[in-house]
Write a structure and sequence with these properties.
alpha/beta; Enolase-like, domain 1; 3-stranded antiparallel beta sheet; binds magnesium ion
Length: 358
């Protein structure tokens, strides 16, 4: 007999929008306003859970309109089902909802509603390894001078892990990385090509950086997502750890990457594989001996704190790239916030994600 209090009484999907301080540009395009979808799940017993869908057209082609209509059609189907069976619901959503970000937001809201009902903070649900994570902050594709100003602000905020977007033209990209580096003096340095380079161009960037005495801790997605030989070549010839982001959207992808030597680290994102899918990818990466990274699209504190729970609770994430709430000039959420030094502290979350609309 299902516990009637955990039956889903209603699901609502609406636009979640917020202004950004400045445009966020990556190899595939740019975004100047948060244009996501907010999901609310109400249970019969009165618990309410929240989820966020973050489509990012420049990353994988998904739009807010697609995410909203997918979420609304799935909402009708979810009503009356039992949130306590969220694992089965997640599997069913994966089969029924083609839009990955819509799926992730729905799954997040169902899990949050159930966890609030059960009074379990999500970091405990994900394994309880820890309750804090520290993030890197990203400098997007901007002229070198602006990169330096952003990097100074990152340093002032007390964050010493720096990520710089690259993937356009190696010379300009190297300028941006060098200028951000000398201003931020990071302890950890990541660059992200967002699939924008050929293997030769990626290796050229590494040479240009090495001439300036700059060594990377991680080169994220240097080449096209299906070019696993190219990924392996950059790692081997560049003597650099490579992370798969666009190339890794499922546990099967993770195992394939490990087998081919195409990546040493996997970047998980709820908006690619959903909550359970990302958790399964983390287990696959750990058992295949790959390092763990977690990131996101352009997301508010709601979706990013859900990811912080997964990283903290599962443990062992060396790279935590959950900084996009800092891009918003008006934060639409309340609850957990990124603290000075780039820390998500989840220790005061009593149940669920611990974030809701302001
Ligand atoms: Mg990436």
């Amino acid at each position: 007999m299902p516990a009637p209090q955990t039956l889903i009484a209603g699901v609502r999907a609406e636009k979640l929008e917020a202004p950004m301080r400045s445009a966020f540009e990556i190899a595939g395009g740019s975004l100047d306003r948060l244009q996501n979808v907010l999901i609310q799940v109400r249970l019969k017993g009165g618990s309410v859970g929240w989820g966020e869908c973050a489509p990012f057209q420049a990353y994988n082609g998904e739009t807010q309109a697609q995410a909203l209509s997918s979420a609304r059609s799935a909402a009708r189907w979810l009503a009356g089902l039992d949130a306590a069976r969220h694992e089965r619901l997640a599997e069913a959503l994966a089969e029924r909802v083609p839009c990955a970000s819509a799926r992730a937001g729905l799954e997040m809201a169902v899990l949050d509603a159930w966890a609030r009902f059960a009074r379990v903070p999500l970091w405990v649900y994900f394994g309880g390894a820890g309750r804090r994570v520290g993030i890197d902050i990203t400098v997007p594709i901007v002229p070198a001078r602006d990169a330096a100003a952003m990097a100074r602000a990152i340093r002032r905020f007390g964050v010493r892990a720096l990520k710089v977007k690259v993937g356009r033209r190696a010379e300009e990209d190297a300028e941006r990385v060098a200028s951000a580096c000398s201003a931020a003096r990071p302890r950890t340095l990541i660059v992200d090509g967002n699939a924008g380079y050929s293997p030769a161009e990626a290796l050229r960037l590494l040479r240009l950086l090495s001439r300036r005495g700059i060594r990377l801790d991680l080169f994220e997605q240097p080449v096209a997502k299906d070019d696993l030989d190219g990924m392996a070549e950059v790692a081997r010839k560049g003597r650099c750890a490579v992370a798969a982001d666009e190339s890794a959207a499922s546990p099967a992808d993770v195992l394939r990457l490990a087998r081919r030597g195409a990546a040493q680290v996997v970047n998980l994102k709820l908006m690619k594989a959903g909550v359970r899918g990302s958790w399964a990818m983390a287990r696959a990466a750990r058992s295949a001996g790959l390092g763990l990274m977690i990131g996101g699209n352009v997301e508010s504190h709601l979706a990013m704190t859900c990811s912080a729970h997964l990283a903290a609770g599962f443990g062992g994430f060396r790279f935590v790239d959950l900084d996009t709430p800092l891009l918003l000039s008006k934060d639409p959420m309340r609850g957990v916030r990124i603290q000075r030094g780039g820390i998500y502290d989840l220790s005061r979350v009593r149940s669920g994600i611990g974030v809701e609309p302001a």
